Amino acid sequence: MTNQVSPQSMTGICIVPTRVSTPFRALNDARRALFYRGMQLTLGALLLGSAGCHQAAPDKVLVVYAAGPRELAESMCKDFEKQSGVTTRLFSATTGEIMAKLKAEEFQPQADVVILAGQTAAQVLKEEGSLARLPKGDYLKLNPQWNDPEGYYAATGACALGLAVRKNHDRNALDWQEVFDGAISGNAMMPSPSQSGSSAEFVVSFHLDSPEKFWNGMRKIKSRGLQVSGPNNQALTSLILGAHEAVLGAADYLVFRQIEKGEPLAMIFPEPGCPLSLRPIGILRTSRHQQEAEQFVQFCFSRPTQERIAAEHLLPADPHVALSAVRQAGPTLHPLLVDVVEAKQAQHAALRKFRFEIEKGLGGVAE
235 — phi, psi (to 5°)? Predict the structure, then answer.
């Protein structure tokens, strides 16, 4: 008899009997017994070696799913690797893409930590039981009003959602009623809530805070030609190129980044206030690396990481960290925060109403 090692040897050893050769038939019983004994010893050694490989190469890769800015997420992962020695693997995408990926991986979860651009998305994960409680620590005291009171997620930073205009715009201070009544012409653009988590937060926040004023105002701007399309960067590019006069619901850190590069833009925070889009971080309940995930969460609230967040023109969770120079030179912000549980409950109806009535212009939608 002869034997061969199958292709399955990449994952294990499989000895497959094939045919009995004539020379082997010629061996006497003693020699055949000696041959089989040798094969048993060889197989045993290979199996032991295989088991040893698994023990020598444990899976210690921390998988992080993070909403943009991508450069910030990459820097945070690299800094964490240097400090902890833990290897990370980053998937950077929009909040909607991350939520879709988590759903698709429901029965084969991959992620350990998730950072989202929107508190409502984190609340969805919490309520469906996908998040583990965060480790306790002083970092949760930095900005407690940004955190889940039950400790399932905490915001590492935030951005405000206001109005971006070109620098030569004739007004540098407005209130929302003036915006709705015509201070901004119809040549305005707004990121689509279906492609921008922050834009969805803008709609839901005003839907809860001042529904009549918001929907009447949006109908007025829509009647003047408001275009709702694409993600944040596409809307800002249109503004930079001069194709539009203003971007409604603009994420401020993206505008400040362009201003820093020398683009002729200005950020306006209309009164009485602008919604905040928080950046919550959470640990997936299915994470195989809970200890490393907890290390990463606490690392995101360390002073150096908070300074990195501020350098990207976001609002850091740590109030003692200085804001970026461009943000400090910007207008005064009066933040508008809504109850996240109410926001989650209202989200579907508000976004459906916006999609059909404002984005597609199909008229009134029953709530």
Answer: -65, -40
